[in-house]
Amino acid sequence: MTTMNEEDSYSPPELAPGKDCGSCSMCCKIFGIAELDSRPGEWCRHVVHGKGCGIHETRPPVCRRFFCHWLRNPNLGPEWRPEKAKFVLYTELGGRRMVIAVDQSNPTAWKREPYYSQFKQWALMAADTNRQLVVFHNDNAVLVLPHEDMDLGIINLGDEIIVDRKGMHLHVTVRRHNRGDSVAQGSHAPET
Ligand code: SF4
Ligand code: SF4
User: Fold this and answer.
1) Among the atoms of ligand 2, which is closest to the Cα of residue 48?
2) Stretch (H or E) spanning 128
């Protein structure tokens, strides 16, 4: 899952005022780029550290079309800049899932403050609106719930993470398409 998702990440570049990539290249490390034979967790060979992309004019379409959530969200301040936060936020599934893709060298970066408290607030809202907040460290996923961080193990492309709210409970199911089976887990829903 640690690949740039061209379809879900592309949209016309409506960037938040004052936001640009600048010296950040975090997505050029976290994601694998098939066209460049770069692997997740390894810096793309075209990164010029502190400056950005060394082949900016000819970079592949998947790079041109990726705009992380920090660039788009005016409410996320400089502390959320990916090169500082050590994770990249993006949305997929038509905005129903927020992904926290962590720098492989800093796998617990998302648990630091002020990030973790904010993620728990987002998880609370997600539980009410049929949305998901998922941390990816390479292909390992953690579903962030209001009162729990649920380790889902390896999630491959095509696998489904299904979160159903029934009354005061969230029911979590992982449907693994390559194995044709489902693993169901339960979690208490927020009291608030
Ligand atoms: S992580 Fe975001 S801000 Fe950083 S280089 Fe990628 S798109 Fe730009
Ligand atoms: S080609 Fe440029 S934008 Fe694309 S991953 Fe490499 S350094 Fe980043």
Assistant:
1) 7
2) helix 115-128
